Amino acid sequence: MQPEHIDPPAMPAAPAVAARRALRLPAVGAMLGLVLLCIAGTLLNSQFATADNALNVLTRTAFIGIIAVGMCFVIISGGIDLSVGSMAALIAGVTILLMNKLVPLGWSPVVVVVLGMSAAVLLGAVFGLAHGLLITRGRIEPFIVTLGTLGIFRAYLTYFADGGAIALDNGLADTYGPVYYGSLLGIPVPVWVFALVAIAGAVLLNRTAFGRYVQAIGSNEQVARYAAVDVDRIKVLTYTLLGACVGVATLLYVPRLGSASPTTGLLWELEAIAAVIVGGTALRGGAGSIAGTVIGAVLLSVISNILNLTNIISVYLNAAVQGFVIIAVAFMQRRRP
Amino acid sequence: MNYRIRLFALAAAAAFGLAGPMLAQAQTKVNLGVAIPAATHSFAAGLVYWAGEAKKELEKDPNIKVTIKTASGAPEQANQLQDLVTATKIDALVILPFESAALTRPVQQVKAKGVYVTVVDRGLTDTSGQDAYVSGDNTAFGKVPAEYLAKFLNGKGNIVALRGIPTTIDNERMDAFNSVMKQHPGIKVLDAKHGNWNRDDAFKVMQDFLTRFKEIDAVWAADDDMAFGVLKAIEQAKRKDIKIVFGGAGAKTMVKTLMDGSNPLIQANVSYSPKFIYDAIKMTALARQKGEKLPASTIVPSVLITKQNAKDFYFPDSPF
Question: Which residues in chain A touch residue B199, judged by CB atoms under 8 angstroms apart?
Fold first, then answer.
């Protein structure tokens, strides 16, 4: 009865095919790159292949990885978000300030921490919603909107922190610690959350109407509009989803160091975008895969891990190695015209 | 907000500056401009704080006026220099150049207009653009911890080191550290990687050092922010082999830890305080008022901070 909720008959073919291709093919390049890197890592240092090191790498990938899953939706829909690093920093700062303020009220630390964690996700979603509305209703390019908020978010954090660092109350830090440092069945909590977010993202992208609309909009926004897809609503939802993902990443980040400073989350936006693209998603949108994104995120942190575990390359060239690998992987999975 | 207040203050200052000379000529007036980086990390926040403190004290004397400008990049700082000369009409300048090379020429131009120039911390590539130079002691920043650690380990053990952002300052510190360690063949510096003076990066680098080296006796974290990340990584790995973590710069939280003795891994620190901007501003203003010159080069010494003297380095109001 509601035509806008029925799959338009002409639509599914193209994006579905694209999605299937995206699922299988592009991730192969990143996968291959990751396997090669792991072999190289093992040869260079026998400690690389230990479970402890693998869990270290996965745990630190969790922040960028979770953000990258959200970013994947935004990029597939043809958008971009440059503000995620600053957003994470501001959410971390505001959450810490909020929790510190709640301490004197005498509530149990667990309640305060849960409130803080909820606030992080909520705040992220609100920031994302604001992005979405400015982009759709305000008709401003996503690049400009999020470039603007990139500066705004970080400046406000710096202002709240008075240029220094905002530190979490010591008592709370002990209660909150296990969210980052704890583990379940031998696997650290952040890795679990990362896995859950990735699976949820994959299901959402490949098995729901929302996922198909996102891909349709990225393939051809005009056609999607003619096919009665509520383009604006879907776009706002993708940015809100990304904001919530940033919130989740931040709630895992805060207990790690228990502080936020103006250098928190610096350049996370580029790492998240790189993870998505290295994972085989097209920057112009239309098709992409969550599996590829996850592999891309892991690949990026494996590079710096290997560099830290070895001594063969001048420390001044670390960034260059990462650059070479990104380009090489992108080359391996280039699409034929 | 701050920015707007500063703009207003600047406009007011400019207005007074114009009216000033007509009122009283009895005492030498000093119209001092200060150009420093904006508070984008805690050390720079310390600079902004200490510059503000110097301004507050100096302006108790109605004949001294201090205008502070903060920049978040070299081009912005160059523009501010022009504004200070043309709009504020400064006769003395204290500048911490954002980048040495990029600001050498703009500072030379300021000096060519007859302004007395004191350069702080980062020297110009051509020193003819400055009248005086005030800086922290980067050699001691590497040497003091190296000597302390060598003594602490009795000349024997394994050390890992963290480095800052690749810069000349970082190189000077690392070279000074290594040259002391050369005299102690029993001590091995296993590796030194860049943690970019950043807590998160230091955390990751330290995690990987812990994976890579099974026996580490001491960590030279080379900065208090990095020491913070290092401590978290050690805590997480539950490693007991590390006996000491040496930070650097004397951030207030670390000095407090030292005073309270609340972390057995933190036993000493080395000073490198953003307070040198305060010293430079006061020295320049007072010397100019008397018509004197500053020594061509003043090094603010970096000294060892231990539990005994920690309270002299603890400034609870400073953000750093």
Answer: 257, 259, 261, 263
pLDDT at A7: 45
Could you tell me the sign of the dihedral formed by the alpha carbons of B45, B47, B48, B54, in that order? positive
> Is B320 among the domain residues?
no
Residue B44: closest C-alpha in chain A: A163
- In chain B, at which residue ranges do the beta strands (DSSP E only) sit? 30-37, 64-71, 92-95, 116-120, 132-136, 157-163, 187-194, 218-220, 244-246, 269-270, 297-300, 304-305
Question: Both B98 and B144 in a single domain?
Answer: no
State how far residue A120 is from chain B, nearest Cα, in angstroms.
19
Q: Is A312 on the interface with B (CB under 8 A)?
A: no
What's the confidence (pLDDT) of residue B25?
41
3-state helix, strand, coil in chain B (%, to 5): 50, 20, 35
Average pLDDT, chain B: 85
User: The dihedral of CA A104, A108, A110, A114: what is its sign?
Assistant: negative
Query: Residue A14: what pLDDT?
Result: 53
Check whether residue B231 and residue B130 sit in a common domain. Answer: no
DSSP B244: E
Residues B234-243 have a mean pLDDT of 92
Whether A46 and chain B come into contact, CB under 8 Å, resolves to no
Residue of A nearest to B160 (CA): A308
Q: Which residues from B are below 8 Å from A316, CB to CB?
A: 166
Minimum Cα–Cα distance from A63: chain B residue: B200
pLDDT bucket at B190, cuts 50 / 70 / 90: very high
Task: Look at B42 and A164 and tell me if their CB atoms are within 8 Å.
Answer: yes
Residue pair B226/B198 in contact by the 8 Å Cβ criterion:
yes
Residues 6+ apart with CB under 8 A from B294: B118, B131, B132, B134, B283, B284, B287
Q: Is residue A163 less than 8 Å (CB to CB) from chain B? A: yes
Q: Which domain holds residue B174?
A: 138-270
Q: Which residue has the higher pLDDT, A13 or B118?
A: B118
**Average pLDDT of the residues in B69-75:** 83
**What count of CB pairs under 8 Å joins A to B?**
88
CB A236 within 8 A of CB A132: yes
Total tally of structural domains belonging to chain B: 2
Asked whether the predicted pLDDT for residue A134 surpasses 80, the reply is: yes
**Which of B5, B41, B189, B234 should be substituted to probe chain A, the one whose Cβ sees the most A Cβ atoms within 10 Å?**
B41
Pair B119, B166 in one domain: no
Tens of pLDDT, residue by residue over A27-81, are: 788 888 899 999 999 998 888 888 889 998 999 899 999 999 999 999 999 999 9
Average pLDDT over residues B134-142: 89
A97 contact B CB<8A:
no
CB contact under 8 A, B2 and A159: yes
Query: Which residues in chain B are closer than 8 Å to A257, comparing Cβ atoms?
Result: 199-200, 203, 228-229, 232
B73 and B143 both lie in a single domain: no
Do residue B206 and residue B283 come from a single domain? no
Q: Is A50 at the interface with chain B, CB within 8 A?
A: yes
Closest CB from A167, A257, A309 relative to B208: A309
Residue B216 has pLDDT above 90, yes or no: yes
Rounded to whole angstroms, the Cα distance separating A37 from A306 reads: 8
User: Which stretch of DSSP H or E encloses residue A15?
Assistant: helix A13-44
pLDDT category, A190, cuts 50, 70, 90? very high
